[in-house]
Amino acid sequence: MKKCCLFLKTYILLFLALILTSSLHGQDYQSFRHELEYVLKNTKLRIGPFRIFPSFDFKDVGYDDNIYYQRDEESPVSDYTATFSPQLKLYFLFRNKLIFSISENPEYVYYHEQKRERRWNNTLSPEFKLLILSRFVISGGYLYRNRRWRATSEFDVRANELRESHKGSLFYETPRRTSFGISASLDKISYEDITLPGEEIYLSRDLSREEREGHLQFYYRVFSESLFFISGGYTEYNFEHPQSQWRNSYSYQVFSGIRFPLLGRMRGALSLGYRKLLPREEGKKGFSGLVGNTSLALRIMRFDLRFQYIRDFRFSYWTNSVYYLEKRYGSGVSFYLARFLRLDYNFQYGENNYPEVTIIQLPNGHFEEIKRKDIYRIHTAGFVLRIIKRTGIGIMVNIWQRESNYYWANRNKMFVGGYITYEF
User: Fold this and answer.
1) 245: nearest Cα among 212, 279, 273, 275
2) Distance CA 117, CA 109 (A)
3) What is d(CA 353, CA 48) in angstroms, rounded to the nearest whole number?
4) Rounded to whole angstroms, how far apart are CA atoms 342 and 308?
């Protein structure tokens, strides 16, 4: 009887804590034991009770011939760029019952001529996992991310975005890594306006919003390290500015798939599902249908093959549509020509489809009704030289093209540069 009362009290406390903290998104949950084993086996530096995982990323070092994604007629601005991104993740473990971590990732983006584009970005994320009664795991965390970037493919110009997220979950786990539970999140996303010459876009009015999300999730281990998952949930989207509250919506979604280990012949995640978006404004078109977020890599002898499939809706600031449907299909191949040299090629084809009819003015002054459709083609080719172990220096050329039935949106750009990779 006492054990039953203790169990009931513990469950109530966990549930209340879950409500107060809010959520993990979709299919990204990792079991307590799996994360504990990873930390114990891969600790790079230890100071007292703290286990430290340092890393750094050096990327986009090169020449960009169109940094603002301008049309050819607008004399595109070019510049030399570089991004330096160190990261420090610190763990504190207590009696195999508590995992506390905190990640700090400052990032400096440099532009040689366009000083207004230089910026320090920052991401800070403390999290915890608490194991209770050997089976129940309560977790929670906070994310603060302040950066200037292209939040979606609709952005031609980088914009400042501030995201704050609270999350929490309650899971039941078995020794064989089967787990199921509930998760919730509260995200607040804020934007600053774009005010370049010829580009006055009021993002703070159009896209700043709050997202509330809840999920039921189930994970089951298949093969040795792979996990089968099912996740279903509900999301509310509430826009901040009165002039954009016609975008207020809610959605139902269910995802299923397999998550493969980070190391092995097959890597990545296969994820497909169904989502239904319902705008609260009468007369506005919603969305229902297949969604996916799949990224897979397969190693066969000297070849590394890559596949990507993304299909989901994104909120739009450009038209009177609440959203646009984004589809991406990608493939790539790497060939290890020698132990120290790898050749890479990737191709991505994408479409953005807008559901609402909009009126545009043609160059001749006439007006036309269209449902905007953009087509993207991205080619990336290069090579990587191994420095030590799995670390290498890469050189690549990236060609980006967008064709649209809205003439003004036709753009293209090229980037030539280098980067450091830890996945040789």
Assistant:
1) 279
2) 8
3) 54
4) 21
CATH number for position 71:
2.40.160
pLDDT of residue 198: 66
**For residues 88 and 106, what is the distance between their CA atoms, to the nearest angstrom?**
9
- What percent helix, strand, coil does the chain show, rounded to 5? 10, 65, 25
| pTM exceeds 0.90 for this model | no
| Token output for 120 | 């320090």
Give the end-to-end CA distance of the chain in Å, rounded to a whole number. Answer: 58
Q: What's the rounded Cα separation, in Å, for the pair 230 and 387? A: 40
Report helix, strand or coil for 13. Answer: helix
Distances in Å between the alpha carbon of 226 and those of 200, 219, 272?
47, 10, 16
Residue written as tokens 């991104």?
Answer: 85
Q: Which of 258, 256, 236, 234 is nearest to 245 (CA)?
A: 236
Asked whether 183 and 189 are in contact (CB, 8 A), the reply is: no
Query: Which domain range does residue 104 map to?
Result: 13-421
β-strand pairing of 79-94 with 98-111:
antiparallel
User: Is 5 strand, coil or helix?
Assistant: helix
Residue 70 included in any domain:
yes
Which residues pair with residue 149 across a beta bridge? 159
- Give the DSSP letter of residue 49: T
Q: What is the pLDDT of residues 245-287, one digit of tens each?
A: 999 999 999 999 999 887 678 899 999 999 999 999 998 999 9
Helix, coil or strand: residue 327 = strand
Which of 185, 242, 132 shows the shortest CA–CA distance to 25? 185
* DSSP for 266-285, written as a single string: EEEEEEEEEEEEEESSTT--
331, β-bridge pairs:
307, 347
**Could you tell me how many helices (H) and strands (E) the chain has, helices first?**
3, 23
DSSP letter, residue 73: G
**pLDDT exceeds 60 at position 393:** yes
21 within some domain: yes
Residue 382: inside a domain:
yes
Contact 72, 414 (CB under 8 A): no
Amino acid at 355: P
Q: Is 411 domain-assigned?
A: yes
Domain count, the chain: 1
